[in-house]
Amino acid sequence: MEKPLSVLLIEDSHRDVSFEVRALETAGYRVTFAVADTAAEMKAALAEEPFDIVLSDIDLPQFNAPGALAVLAEGGLDIPLIIVSGAIGEENAVALIKEGASDYVPKDRLTRLASTVEYALRDSQKRRRLKQAEEALRASEEKYRLLADNTVDGVWLLDMNFKLIYCSPASEKQSGFTVQEIMEMSLEQYFTPASLKVVAEAFLEAVPRTQADPDYNPILNLELEFNKKDGTAFWSECRFRVIRDQYGKPVSILGQARDITERRLAEEKLVISHESLKKTLNDAINTMVKIVEMRDPYTAGHQQKVAELATAIAVEMKLDDTRIDQLRTAAVIHDIGKMYVPSDILSKPGALSQMELDLIETHVQGGYDIIKGMDFPCNVARVVLQHHERLDGSGYPNGLKSEDILLEAKILSVADAVEAMASHRPYRAAMGIDKALEDISRGKGKIYDPGAVDACLELFNSGRFEFKAV
Fold first, then answer.
1. How confident is the model at residue 132 (pLDDT cuts 50, 70, 90)?
2. Which of 5, 220, 330, 438 has the fewest C-beta atoms under 10 angstroms from its C-beta?
3. CB 136 within 8 A of CB 142
């Protein structure tokens, strides 16, 4: 059954809005939403209707996540806000959570969005229920215990020496140990060794600072594995915070734990499924490569060699891992469009006629048409389409110039030219690697990207790269 969810999106990209809404709908939410990209629009939207949650990009041209948190605070609105951003560092994430954000989700990890929203909603509900109880805790621990005893999450209270002084009945249901058994257990007995190390490192870093700085009140969010009485283990999403007395002195550590074993298993299955799909895609790529090489035996191994060189150049130029992976994929299948070119032309000895050259040049468009319909990132198809473009506009199929050509395509064109010139072709003998490097040096800055040429020359001249037999 679909769960209704009213969302306010602080976003200026319709594409990202669509992706986020789709991720929530896929997880079973019936989403209604509004979009704002300025403080004024956000205030207007909040005045018109209540929202369950706010999803905010970290930085927009006219607005940002801290501003969105400020709008909520100014309005006295207790609505959870989750940062959904393509680029957010650890320090920024921690700072925003300190300012009141519930959590953050990278835009390339939207499979986590629904579970993060669910946790934030539950946490918001719990926060509203516990707010009064936490205030009463400072005056009367018994009132707090009454609430904690009836929550479905495990709740513990530890003194500042990490000794349990309270454990809720929910912990008994999670672990199989009785409350009394848990109270008598050491942390070494309760946590698995790996999780014990995580807890110890987190507490040893946070607690001394908490004791020294009265304004430092961290919330530690950790996924930890607990031992069960039957010898198995379960995973919990845990949240720890320090409780201070009326004088600001830390007196105890409050811990909450939600069983996420099923979620972890689902995530593991998702990873396995992704790897399986990746293998299937790689198998399809290899099949396409073999088809091209069967039709053009003189260039057998060409695409693989080009992929190795292009990848090495991209690493030398310090491209990020995602761009390198996409370039490697494009390089491995950059000549796939030759399936459309008659094999007698591909293997013809001697000079080619203009008509035959025109037919061969269609392979980039043919390759693009094949790849764009497959489940590849969009840049893969574009790199294949552009790998015969040249900086001065003399390339094909569209005569693009430098600024309009993807960097990955510029790198691929250098690697493709070097391997082609260094290898034998039916219409000419191999020129050799030295001649190939001389050729790209002459074309540096004119038809070939200077950075890609310099990286290529450095790889060969330093002896860090050489073509291997395929």
1. low
2. 438
3. no
